[in-house]
Amino acid sequence: MQQYNIHNAKTNLSALVDKAAVGDSFIIAKAGKPMVKVIPISTQKTVRRIGFLKGQIKIPVDFDRMGQPNIIQDFEGAELPAK
To answer: What pTM was estimated for this model as a whole?
Structure first.
């Protein structure tokens, strides 16, 4: 991957943007230290966060009563009803 210093990148910005747009990524460095990687937008991975588990999780109908006997026993000290 090609690396350009910041001064050279500013001088040739238009040409470098055209280069990146066709898929040729490059790095811009400052004082020899790589600072940013320039890639075309079409190759960036899209991070989809909201709703990523939609349809994969099922909540039981008795969700609000799950573990109720154990909770009652823990808080009230009552015996668990026989099943």
So the answer is: 0.49
